[in-house]
Amino acid sequence: MDLNHPDADAEIWIETWEEIEKDMLNFIRIDPMSSREAFQIMEDFAESVTNNRMRNRLHDALSRNKPFSRFKDAVDNGGYIRQQWFDFKQQRYEDWVRAFIQRATR
Question: pTM value?
């Protein structure tokens, strides 16, 4: 974590960061997922949507400028798929972290 990043609220994390620094061998640094990997998750979700109209809307969002924000808008205004997206994304991120940890601990 970069406590100097403009979006970081350093006060919240200082105590946690100090605890981590005391015991670094018991922690694994997990770098953020690349934009390409996150984009792939969005593409995979779009493919999983069974409603043709919504699937096409998501694919259209991903094929235009600013695909991340367009996809978010489509999902946020997509009614029933919003929770499906959150569940799908959560599962894929958990899978990604598990794979990362497996590679790091070999």
Answer: 0.78
Burial 34-61 (b: 16+ CB within 10 A, else e): eeeebeebbeebbeebeeeebbebbbeb
Q: Which residues fall within 8 angstroms of residue 4, CB to CB, at 6 or more apart?
A: 10
Nearest-angstrom CA–CA distance, 41 and 39: 5
Measure the CA–CA gap between 82 and 66, rounded to whole angstroms: 19
Place of tokens 């959150």: 86
Residue 66 CA to residue 83 CA, distance in Å, equals: 22
Burial of 67 by CB count in 10 Å (0-12 exposed, 13-18 middle, 19+ buried)?
Answer: middle
Q: What is the pLDDT of residues 17-63, one digit of tens each?
A: 888 889 888 888 888 899 999 999 999 999 999 999 999 999 999 99
